[in-house]
Amino acid sequence: MKPQDIEPFFAALQAANPQPNTELEYTNVFELLAAVLLSAQATDVGVNKATRRLFPVANTPQAVLELGLDGLEGYIKTIGLYRTKAKNLMQTCRILVEQHGGQVPRTREALEALPGVGRKTANVVLNVAFGQPTMAVDTHIFRVGNRTGLAPGKNPLAVEMQLLQRVPPQYLVDAHHWLILLGRYVCQARKPRCWECVVAPWCDYEPKTPAPFNAG
């Protein structure tokens, strides 16, 4: 993608969705952290289904600890890898209570020290909860970055670094959401819906997928 195409690319995404947000459901920063931790190799829909049961009962680190491991597993057992995630979340809650006064820390170093929290999860929390211009690269953003030519890279960190360099500053806080939604619903893995894409004019992908015969 040519440098001069990047600004109109993001302007089009902004025009189509001026206030993007995560599709994970949460009402406080701890709920967001817990939901993102549970979302690894799971869908947001599946995580939301579980947290709608969990959060009314336990939406603070102390409340989760009081549930106990077996109790927590009962609420999240519909999510893949739930046993490992339950252990990580319990250990994370213990650290939050013992070392952070029950609050979610605002630094990457402290977040990545929590069990089950890697760079991507930390980036989501820093961006969504604290408004920091981070870029959490999941499979969708990795695909969009490479396919469009916006941020080619052989691994998620390479794509992240490219995006941080190439995304205009005024779009950086929201770029993570726009690119995830683009990859999830339009720039899909097997058959990108190029005929519906608002950024197709600036995308390097060729040949563009034509509209189905019955798409009108």
From TrEMBL:
Provide the reaction this enzyme catalyses.
2'-deoxyribonucleotide-(2'-deoxyribose 5'-phosphate)-2'-deoxyribonucleotide-DNA = a 3'-end 2'-deoxyribonucleotide-(2,3-dehydro-2,3-deoxyribose 5'-phosphate)-DNA + a 5'-end 5'-phospho-2'-deoxyribonucleoside-DNA + H(+)
SMART domains noted in UniProt: ENDO3c (SM00478), FES (SM00525)
Note accompanying the cofactor annotation: Binds 1 [4Fe-4S] cluster.
- The top EC class, named as a word, is lyase
CDD domains membership: ENDO3c
Pfam families for the chain = EndIII_4Fe-2S, HHH, HhH-GPD
Question: Where's the HhH-GPD domain?
Answer: 38-185
The UniProt entry's coiled-coil ranges are none
Could you confirm whether the keyword Magnesium appears in this record? no
The prosthetic group or cofactor this protein requires is: [4Fe-4S] cluster
**A molecular function (GO) term:** DNA N-glycosylase activity
Which biological process annotations from GO are given for this protein? Answer: base-excision repair, AP site formation
Residues bound to [4Fe-4S] cluster are 187, 194, 197, 203
Q: What does this protein do?
A: DNA repair enzyme that has both DNA N-glycosylase activity and AP-lyase activity. The DNA N-glycosylase activity releases various damaged pyrimidines from DNA by cleaving the N-glycosidic bond, leaving an AP (apurinic/apyrimidinic) site. The AP-lyase activity cleaves the phosphodiester bond 3' to the AP site by a beta-elimination, leaving a 3'-terminal unsaturated sugar and a product with a terminal 5'-phosphate.
The record's family statement is: Belongs to the Nth/MutY family.
Classification via HAMAP family: Nth
Q: What protein name does the entry list? A: Endonuclease III
Which species expresses this protein natively? Diaphorobacter nitroreducens
